[in-house]
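Task: fold both queries, return tokens.
Query 1:
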Amino acid sequence: MTAINTAEVLVEALPYIRRFAGRTVVVKYGGNALAGTSEHDALALFAEDIVLMHTVGIRPVVVHGGGPQINEMLTRLNIESKFSNGLRVTDAATMQVVRMVLNGEVNPQIVSAINVHGNVAVGLSGEDGRLLQVRPRDAELGFVGDIERVRPQVIESLLDDGMVPVISTVGVDTNGQPYNINADTAAGAIAEALAAEKIIYLTDIAGLRRDINDAGSLIQRTTVNELQTLIEDGTIAGGMIPKVESCMQAVRGGVKSAHILDGRIAHVLLLELFTDHGVGTMITGGQ
């Protein structure tokens, strides 16, 4: 890239930097995006994007899952992975592994990657300060929780101090028992509690499609009402439903827009936030 190309990129980004400065943006970093590709170190590029956002005045909050990493650890420990309607059946042994992987492996990995570029990231669990208080979803699922309450004060204090919270999605009930939480749902609830400007889901797909087998049918922009129709007619199905429903809930709860992006694309956050065309699927509450 020539110097003039660089200048043109910066000029294109300027109005977006002004628009989003001081605004909170929640980024859900999925375990599949974390796995990256053979072409680049996805986590390192993600960390650069988060630090750049922070540097220009945006208040990023990272919420992460770690499904593939949990699966890998369960396999190594000879513990069978079981799922019901897209949710991990979580007995006591599995819950121990979930906490170990999310709180002890994935969270520090993301924090360390961000802090390579400046000591701004702080790791949190939904257990800390009962940030994510839950109730059991279904006895057959074991220790799987639905969020009952989000306590955003801890996050807001860190943001006010100029830090980047990195949150693992393990919550607790009123007795302090840890529960596994669907990371998409947790990210949406956190964004809603923070009255975030945006919630961005980084995953391993380019966005939503009208035809799952046709890459050319990418839905670049849609509304909550249209998404509800796409769920009802079966266009959106399977594992995408919790992600899309969390987008819809967040937007209905006051988040201005939700975005589903391919986290394997280099600097995908910057492409979505700071360029005229953007990438992926954007969801708003408009008609």
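Query 1 returned. Query 2:
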Amino acid sequence: MNSLQHQPIFAEKQSTPAVSEETGLLSQQGKAFPFNHRLHSLQNKIVHFLGIIKSLGISFSMTDYDRRKLEIFNLLNFLNLVAGVIVPVTGLIQDRNLPVTAWIAAFAPPMISVIVLVLNYFKKHEAGMIAYFVLYPVITSVVYLNGINLGVDLFFILYGILAVFFISRISDMLFSIGLSMVSYFMLSVVLKNYVYKLETANFGLYLFNQGLAILLIFYGLFLIKKENTDYEKQLLNTNNELGNINSEIQEQKAVIAEKALLLEQQTKKLEELNSLKNKLFSVISHDLKAPMYALRNLFQNVQQHNLPGEEIKEMLPEVVNDLNYTTGLMENLLQWAKSQMQVNTVFPQRFDIAETFNDVMHALRLSAKAKSIDVENNFSKPVYVYADKDMINLVLRNLISNAIKFTPEEGRIFISATERKGAVEIEVKDTGIGISKENLEKLFREFYTSNGTSNESGTGLGLMLCKEFLAKNEGTIVVKSEEGKGSVFTFTLPVVPGNEL
């Protein structure tokens, strides 16, 4: 029992060093944490303070490039101010027997830097530039001319380098560089006899001045190089952004141009449809009335006057002629309306065009017989095409009807079909009155109307439908004609599906 009671005490004593070690580690970490926090806080304060110094005198109206130059200029002046305070303080500690002129020269740089920063703060940037690039060289030269060499001649080179970057006006830049370089040459090369030389009086302070000058020269060059690199990157990024924006603008212009072209095409098509609509209304309101009135007059005369058969026969040809025109017109109107409602709807199939020709001639035989016109063909065997049968029926009917219309009595019409390179070429040739060159140019583009050899009228809608229907069936149509020598209308159709002509 006693041994068991002492075990926990023993275990507790064994764990005590580990606990104390861990406690010590936590204590050290706790002490390190406030130090790191204070260091980080100090860094933030320094960065914030330098940001305030760099932003002295900056306005929203300045360009980005000018703003960057002013920030560097402010930072350099602040560094000159710090260095300018260190130099006289060091001299005061190490050598209190310096001449009065030397003390003036030692305290001049920080005073000039203060003046420049104050001028920049009040946005007197040009005055700040003049104070920096004129007062520094002039005061230093005055000190050297009084026989005191403080070992700051390398600062003249610094002023010349900085003048190239900070001064925009060429004349002012050349004046500043000239002043610095002439002063350096005269004071460092020409004048050698100085009453007081810091190099011999206090070599350590002399080395500090030389080192500070070299450090500021390299730091100035670094800032200038960094600024130019950043500015070039910014220009490159801006140029890339402008290039992307320009590409987007060009794409938008292309889209707008495409839409404008499409809108123009749609507008043109609407104008054509509106013109066609007006023409159709004119046809419906005028041309369809004539045959109706002719029929009404015929039946009224038969009813009221009990006309004999001979007189009725004399009136019938004119009535039949009007009815033939009306029938063709109604067919064209119905097909046009159907094509407009169904737009691009085509129902192609493989069929024998010779049978379609026979169907068309069955409907037009009376018109041909009335003018004693002989219609011939070369369909000795089936000729198969791949197209919409109803549309091609209308094409054949319009072309043969026109041939009958413009062929004098006892004329001749010949229809032939020939296979050529996977397509069928159908030709409708007549011995009619022909078409002039002027009318050939507008035959399929607008309403071309002309009275036939027996004064048959027309609307011009048939040939437009022929061209439209053939195009929908991958076909083409051409015409050759000469006045007084007849016309030849030739159209083509594919013989297999998807055959491009």
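Both queries returned. Flag for query 2: The CA atoms of residues 288 and 326 lie 6 Å apart.
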